[in-house]
Every structure is written in C-alpha cells, then in structure tokens.
Amino acid sequence: MIDTQLVDTIGAFAGVIWMSAALYFQFWRRDHVHPALVSSLFLIGVALLMASSALVLAGRPAMVVLLGLIANGLFAALGIAVWYGLDQNTPTCEVAA
C-alpha cells in the first residue's frame, strides 16, 4: 500500500521545483526573462506546495492515493522540463541601465 505522506512529499517537491525555477530566472540567470513567465512559474509552485500541504488522503482507496502520486510525479517532471525549455528558448530583453 502507498503511504499518503509520500504523495504529499512528492507534491511539495514538485512545488519547490517550480518555485526554484522562478528564483533562478529572476536572480541568477544572466539574461532577463519576462516577469510574467517568472511570476507564472512561482504561482504554480506555490499552488502545488499549498495543495500538497492541505491535501488529506488518509482513509482513501489505494487507487486515489496512486493517482495522486502519479500526478505529483508528473508535475515534478513537467517543472523540470519547463525550466529547461524556458532556459533554452526564452528570448532575452535588453535592460537599460
């Protein structure tokens, strides 16, 4: 049987990936990225983190827990893919100093 704490942990990990991507694009990437992309990444991460902390799967059938585990794993993989894709394909903008 799958532990419900594992589902919440992977969901929180997925949220941290999305939030880390936003922080990377905002603070560490040399070229500037449009603020809408950065804020979108951050808000998706916050939503995942909050959903994982508020999600109560105790007492649910094993199939519900398994689907939650798969969904959070997919969100973690999607976060990494979006991070990489944006880093490779985002046009940079000139910033007047």
What is the gist of this entry?
By secondary structure, this protein is mostly helical.
Explain what the structure shows.
This protein has 97 residues and is mostly helical. Helix content is 75%, strand content 0%. It contains 3 helices and no strands. The protein has helices at residues 4-28, 35-54, 62-89. Helix 1 runs antiparallel to helix 2 (35-54). The longest helix is centred in the C-terminal third of the chain and has 28 residues, at 62-89. The protein is elongated and about 55 Å long. The model has no long low-confidence stretch (mean pLDDT 77). The chain crosses the membrane at residues 6-25, 37-58, 64-86. Keywords: Membrane, Transmembrane, Transmembrane helix.
